[in-house]
Amino acid sequence: MDTTYFSRYYWIMVFRAYELKKNLLFKEVRWENLYDYKEWIRILKERWWRIKAIACDWKKWLLQGFPWIPTQMCHFHQKQIIIRYITRNPKLEASIELRDISSMLWKVRKTTFKTRLIDWHERYKKFLSEKNDNKKFIHERTRKAYRSLSRNLEWLYTYEDNGHLLIPTTSNALEWTFKHLKDKIRIHWWLRKDRKLKLIFELLQK
Known about the structure:
By secondary structure, the chain is α+β, with helices and mostly antiparallel strands. It contains ten helices and five strands; from the N terminus they run E-E-E-H-E-H-E-H-H-H-H-H-H-H-H.
């Protein structure tokens, strides 16, 4: 499940069945919020859909919003978070090593990844604690990259902890759907909002 915006005034929320490759529900919302996600999960259950697991992006309130449903954080979004903090080509040795560890996310098991992350933190603990004359951390971006991986680890390997459910590790199927929708809307930029929504909903039904 995911939500994307087409302007600052309207967003589209979509629930997609990974195994069926089918969009189950979609609606216009004013912004992405937990209330609408919960309400639509309730509607899906009323329609006799069984919610086995959820794959979504990095928002903490979303990852924590459904403690009764196995929730997988998208690996692609986690990778983008790391890039945002330390870039694709970091200069610091600690950041280079952390980037390399993060690139193993979808290649190694949870225990291996966690061990390497803990080992990295132990070796660079003093480095991460360095402060300037204003008592601010010097390597704040590297600290944030590590904190992101450490904090999100609980949801990054849900697919492994629940192997029988065949949970996807990314929400890329919806990302590609959103890209396709926005390309279509960009071509028909002159349409009124109501006609744009009609086009979006027709495309989502296919």
